[in-house]
Specification:
443 residues; alpha/beta; FAD/NAD(P)-binding domain; five-stranded parallel sheet
Length: 443
């Protein structure tokens, strides 16, 4: 059993060497704080590593945010990359980021965490899959959210092939078949477009209507376009972007897409430029929500039915932190309920990075979270001593607006949602309140 650092510095265990774990390791090292990262796979990357068992990444996967607004500070994506990098390019980017900051030196590969237990005396007892036991002051959960598929309970039985989008890898699984994709999130729409180009017949089942944002607006990546203008009040932004999408896409109901049942920005944005192409060419059909299965037949809530060979559920993921007792967290709709999506309100030595969804590039948000974790750890000190009263009060009472007054649809994925500009503003306020240094960038 290893002991904590003898120099009085607070020690930290980070679980996972995906993007959020790497960002956390860099932030801690930048402040000279001891950290150990444990990764069950044999290399970094998380879901972006195609060899990582259980990754949901498929051959046609790309970033849904642009390279311009998706990189870590001081480490932009290469100029030669496309506006929306491929999965393999993202992995290469993460590998160069890891090498640049010598993060491999603090990562133990092929070594997952079996369990982490909080001691009433202060600190975490971490038992590794190897059986080794280590002690840490702090625990940062960075194991990611897209590992445990959520499958709906559909009445009846289906004779064909049924699987979750996590198990989709390439169009070879679709060729010549009658394919139905259930779910219209970003992955579901991507896979539906793959099916439209390769399957014998392709359809997508949608529970509700959505606003579809093209990946480019006037030749500029959509997030760059949105970021380049003045920050408008929410109500005005909703109207402006709704009108713009109508001008760019036309009335989407003409292609069979349901009319959105919510305003712009009230749900996670769907960025896809291909779906209108395939719908307008008849290569993809839109179906309503699935009601039941009957052998090879899928029945829909509008009374229609069709035969299919393959049904793919792109229905999201359950958020699990299996190595920590559930009681250590507060939960909202199956998501850990954390202040700023990072800090546990009851235990100042428990953190989560990367368990949120937002309307912009994930890596910069992970970096903000990681820097906040490192700053807090530096401030509160070892677990064997009392955390500052001001910080404990902040954990108990703070109520920051990190969704920008948006009225989000009440679905589980929004329990951990954030609006990028609002989140950055609130994090800046926290840094100012506690005298934290500005986010460190590298030239």
């Amino acid at each position: 059993m290893t002991s904590r650092a003898s120099n009085g510095q607070s020690t930290t265990c980070v679980v996972g060497a995906g993007p959020s774990g790497l960002a956390t390791a860099r932030a801690l090292l930048a402040k000279g704080l001891p950290v150990e990262v444990f990764e069950r796979n044999d290399q970094i990357g998380g879901i972006w590593d195609p060899t990582n068992k259980g990754t949901p990444i498929y051959e046609s996967a790309h970033f849904i945010s642009s390279k311009t607004l998706s990189g870590f500070s001081g480490h932009p994506f290469p100029e030669g990359y496309p506006d929306y990098p491929r999965a393999d390019q993202i992995l290469t980017y993460l590998q160069t980021f890891t090498k640049k900051h010598d993060l491999d030196s603090v990562i133990t590969f092929s070594c997952g965490v079996d369990r982490a237990e909080w001691s009433s005396d202060g600190g975490w007892t971490v038992t590794l899959e190897t059986g080794d036991v280590k002690q840490f002051d702090n625990l940062v959960c960075a194991n990611g959210t897209q590992w445990h598929p959520a499958m709906p309970d559909i009445p009846g039985s289906f004779d064909g092939e049924v699987f979750h989008s996590k198990d989709y890898s390439s169009i070879d699984q679709l060729r010549g078949k009658r394919v139905l994709i259930v779910g219209a999130g970003n992955s579901g729409v991507d896979i539906a477009c793959d099916a439209a180009s390769s399957a014998g017949y392709a359809a997508i089942s949608m529970r509700r209507g959505y606003h579809f944002i093209p990946k480019h607006i006037f030749g500029i990546p959509s997030d760059v376009f949105g970021d380049s203008g003045p920050e408008l009040p929410l109500a005005i932004s909703q109207r402006v972007f709704a009108v713009m999408l109508r001008l760019l896409n036309g009335k989407q109901e003409r292609l069979g897409l349901p009319k959105p049942d919510h305003k712009m920005f009230e749900t996670h944005p769907i960025l896809n430029s291909e779906i209108f192409h395939y719908l307008s060419h008849g290569d993809l059909q839109v179906k309503r929500d699935v009601e039941s299965f009957d052998g090879p037949i899928v029945r829909f809530t509008d009374g229609t039915s069709e035969e299919f060979d393959v049904v793919i559920f792109a229905t999201g993921y359950n958020t699990l932190i299996p190595y920590v007792d559930e009681a250590e967290f507060e939960w909202t709709m199956g998501r850990p309920s954390m202040l700023m999506r990072v800090f546990d309100r009851r235990n100042p030595h428990l953190f989560a990075v990367g368990f949120s969804e937002g309307d912009g590039g994930g890596f910069p948000i992970f970096e903000l979270m990681a820097d906040a974790v490192a700053s807090a750890i530096q401030q509160i000190g070892p677990a064997t001593q009392a955390a500052p009263a001001l910080w404990l009060r902040f954990l108990r009472e703070a109520d920051p607006d990190i969704i920008g007054h948006v009225k989000l649809i009440k679905v589980p994925r929004h329990a951990a949602y954030l609006h990028g500009p609002a989140y950055k503003k609130e994090m800046a306020n926290i840094r100012a309140e506690f005298g934290w240094d500005e986010l460190t960038t590298d030239d």
